[in-house]
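Async update (no meeting this week)

Hi team, since we skipped the sync, here's where things stand on the single-chain job. The sequence we agreed to prioritize is pasted below, unchanged from the tracker. I ran it this morning and attached the output directly underneath so nobody has to dig for it. Comments welcome in thread, and please keep replies under the output.
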Amino acid sequence: MSKTKRELSVKSQTLTVREMIQLVLKNSIVVDESYQVGTSEKSRWTIAEMIRFFISLITGMSISPIVLVDIKSCYEYWKKNDRDEESMLYFKKFLDDGYDYISVDGNNRTITMVDISKDKVKLQQGGYQLLNHSGPDIQVKKGKQYLSMLSDSLVAKFYDTIVKLELYTDISKKECGTVFRAINDGMGLNDHSKRQSNSSDLADFVRQMRKDFKKSLEKIFAPRNILLLKADEFIAKLLSYTTTKNFSKSTLDNIYDTPNETIDKLLTTRNKWFVRTLKAFFKEVESFKWTSPNSAFDCWATISDMQDEEIKIQSMKKYVSIYYKELEQLKIENKRYENPDVTKRASIPFLDYAGLLSKSMSLTTGVFRRSVIMSKIMSKLLDEEVITQLEDPTKRTFSQRQKSELWHKQDGICPETNKKIPIEELYNASLWQADHIVPFSKGGLTTIENGQLICATRNKQLGNKKK
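Output:
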């Protein structure tokens, strides 16, 4: 397909509210969540917004068109032009499934129309003046009323109201996302709504996980935030952390703009660990009430970190349970920690664990939180064989048990700097690292006798200089 800009063809049409509702109920309109501000299952509008739209319909003030894609016209266009096979196959799939239109803008309005017709939205008490009339034509006198409780003339007015449509007839799959972003520019489109408009297998996987584990995500997010795609963004952060150890806005934007690398690493049959483990994790998440996304994110991050260190989790159920119980204990303790975020230390020098959780998921804060909780539960996880790690003197990595033994052997003191190693920082590799006295590259074995737990900065300075 040519990269030069072209003028898209748009056809204007009008339907009554009744006809629009019938289209929805006949499943003529498909909602591709790539082009939605929220989710397809429920309007992201609050009741107040639904009521305002109800009023705008009966008073003739709903003038913004609903934007749809004419699937048959687009399919025939790309089949004839033979320039974009991806778009042709995209539209053919929906056509074969019996759909006529794809919703690009107006999903909240169409859902609200149907909900009004099903008596799910009440009209507030008061007088409503129709256009071109001198007085209040409509009076709702007995509190809030559903549509079926209103006068026949008002019900007829609702169903006979004209709805404007704009139909794209030659748009491509990629251009659907571009149009969606352009329509919503400056209208509160959040970061993840923009990301997911880049349609891909990655975006589809994230959406499907949110649907499959909705009950689990409801233990982390309020319903409103799920509608606003906070749960989708959370799942994307888990993927991003697993592949990059980062989950910043720019990193998330990048993996959605160029998803193939993440897909190849995590979502193919070559790597069954990620999908299998993520599903097991979310299954156990449902058993607990997480007070913040940070607390659940941290739990997954420790699981991901263990995979990197070749630590096997034998029971996800026991792991999440032990983690959660310690989390709740830490939140009620009075112990205060020096703020790990040096940029905010002057204004907030100390924080308790609950305070650490309330902060944004910065790398430094998150790493510190996880180091604190792992220092509390690591021995229990190892002793009860919830996790196992092969200790092989011929492999470079020291096990978590060996790190603990080195800490005790050194009385919690770094032999290179003579600094105290706080127990809560023991598993924070950015601060302290298990190092070979005789370098591994020179034949040194990964054993307690040849190991030392030292300052990460000092370890970097030493490199392979040790004799």
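Quick observations from my side:
The chain has a mean pLDDT of 88.
The CA atoms of residues 416 and 454 lie 6 Å apart.
Reply here if anything looks off.
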